[in-house]
Specification:
The protein is built from 13 helices and 23 strands. By secondary structure, the chain is α/β, with parallel strands linked by helices. α1 runs parallel beside α6, α1 packs parallel to α13 and α3 crosses α4. Bound molecules: flavin-adenine dinucleotide.
Length: 492
């Protein structure tokens, strides 16, 4: 029986464990955090997962409640392989799809089916991925399902599957070095409350996240300004997996400065507010900018808020905010869209100001050039095309005309009080650059040869995302590469 050590206990690690266990391996998971903080970024997620599907019939076997009474009244559409390909390609800066991206796409649906066989079930994301139209729920962004109970539910169900299959997990075991003999990885050194220990094994699967929580590495790989980003997720993702593998001669793959970063509430602390349950922490996110406008400290708009569905912009707009003077922005809405704003805008700890006139609102917005902000709103309002109807279920083409930076879709005038403005800053979610793997999730060295006994999955795999990210792809990537790493290591 193969002895496999998996480092990390998030979605990627747990998928690797399930897969290795079902192929007859003996699995021990080593997790740096105590049990109460384990599960990594995966615990913070909404559990949304992007995958290829052709119709509602493909979704039904994955559902926690296929008899939900809303289902007959829902247009789920489809998400084709070609659409997933073009979504990823649109962020590749002209590069063709990488091997890793093709693996993600080709295995996405099958991996979701595999999870559902292990009793990990899913719900349609009615709250954030549909708008109601003519009495029907319309999905609009290629992302339809989230794990039952969101990230917390996903990790709990996966952990239950690991335990049912006989896997073991040791908390407060922080991997600090890989052991090797010749060119083969043979074990791991860990820091534990009892001191440093060596654990020997046949294979190591690295699944311990990117380097987003490591300020020094962020500065080194991504540039000085990334020191100012706030970390949205786990404080334990310090890049240890990448560093340990690089020390053994592994190759780095992907954009070192690529990352997922999102507009977040100005007052969110690092790692979210850890005094509240995981499920509430994501409410600091503020991603409904497409329903209004964003202005920077100088009072200028700086992105086309409606350039695409927000699933294709929210992970890039964090960086856009970081790059603004003083690295913050304000999002401005009027009451026409109030009901469409996600629940997070009504979160008890949301920062915002409110007023009955635009002038009074702007007076309440701290840190900005108020005169310019008023001018920006006025010229935006004057530029809105009134001949097109607003429709958030499609790219409606309701645009502004004649501005130096137009808004391409969903451009409503800001004219119905009360008005609200939300201050936001950049929250880093996870890093894109990481280890180079082959189709078996084996870590490759500088000459593209597998480092024997070493596998990788999840955030620390490079070459899956480059300049951007279609929402819900991170968990699917972790599951796809975790499943592959687990069974190849078990069968090696
Ligand atoms: C707020 C938020 C919301 C998100 N929402 C979504 C979403 O809805 N859908 C989606 O697809 N993606 C989402 N993401 C991205 C998603 O979280 C990641 O892509 C995914 O969870 C990464 O999984 P992973 O298993 O690779 O890493 P993680 O889940 O972060 O797990 C890494 C684990 O490794 C452990 N670890 C780190 N270093 C060591 C070490 N040296 N030794 C031992 N253990 C170590 C950590 O403690 C952690 O448990 C979100 C992220 C955040 C922060």
């Amino acid at each position: 029986m193969k002895k496999i050590i998996i480092i990390g206990s998030g979605n990627a690690a747990l998928c690797a464990a399930i897969s290795a266990l079902e192929h007859g391996a003996q699995v021990t998971i080593l997790e740096a955090a105590p049990e109460t903080e384990a599960g990594g970024n995966s615990m913070y997620t909404a559990g949304a997962m992007r995958f290829v599907y052709n119709s509602k019939e493909d979704l039904l076997p994955l559902l926690n409640d296929p008899n939900d009474e809303r289902i007959p009244n829902t247009e789920f559409g489809s998400y084709s392989k070609e659409k997933f390909q073009s979504d990823l390609l649109s962020f590749n800066d002209g590069k063709p799809l990488s091997l890793q991206q093709n693996i993600l796409i080709d295995n996405s649906y099958e991996t979701l089916r595999w999870l559902s066989h292990h009793n990990i079930k899913f719900d349609p994301i009615y709250s954030r991925q549909t708008f109601e139209k003519d009495g029907k729920f319309i999905f609009w962004g290629g992302l339809t399902l989230e794990a039952e109970g969101e990230g917390v539910g996903l990790v709990a169900s996966e952990l239950a599957a690991v335990r049912k299959l006989g896997g073991k997990i040791r908390y407060e075991h922080k991997a600090i070095k890989l052991l090797s003999e010749g060119l083969k990885v043979t074990g791991v050194i860990c820091e534990t409350p009892e001191g440093e220990i060596e654990i020997m094994c046949d294979h190591v699967i690295l699944a311990c996240g990117g380097f987003e929580a490591n300020k020094a590495l962020r500065k080194e790989y991504m540039g000085e300004q990334w020191a100012n980003a706030i970390v949205r997720g786990s404080k334990y993702n310090l890049g240890a997996g990448i560093s340990m593998a690089l020390e053994l001669g592994a190759a780095f793959e992907g954009n070192p400065d690529g990352c997922h970063a999102t507009p977040m509430d100005m007052h969110m602390p690092n790692y979210g507010n850890t005094d509240i349950p995981y499920i509430e922490r994501k409410n600091y996110r503020k991603i409904c900018y497409f329903l209004g406008i964003m202005v920077n400290a100088n009072g200028h708009r700086f992105v086309d808020e409606g350039i695409n569905f927000r699933n294709y912009t929210y992970a890039q707009f964090g960086k856009a905010i970081l790059e603004q003077p003083e690295s913050f922005a304000w999002q401005i809405f009027d009451s026409k869209v109030d009901e469409l704003l996600y629940a997070e805008y009504r979160f008890w700890d949301a920062s915002f100001v409110e007023a009955d006139t635009i002038e009074a609102l702007v007076q309440k917005m701290d840190g900005i050039n108020k005169k310019q902000t008023l001018e920006t709103i006025l010229s935006y309002n004057n530029a809105v095309d009134h001949t097109v109807n607003f429709d958030p279920t499609i790219l409606d083409g309701k645009a502004t005309k004649g501005l130096s930076l137009n808004k391409t879709n969903w451009a409503n005038t800001l004219d119905r009080p009360p008005y609200k403005a939300y201050p936001v800053k950049c929250g880093i979610t996870f890093t894109y650059g990481g280890l180079k793997v082959n189709k078996n999730a084996q870590v490759l060295d500088q000459s593209d040869q597998p480092i024997r006994g070493l596998y990788a999955c999840g955030e620390l795999v490079g070459g899956v995302f480059y300049k951007g990210y279609p929402g819900g792809s991170g968990l699917t990537s972790g599951a796809v590469f975790g499943k592959i790493a687990g069974h190849t290591a078990a069968n090696a």
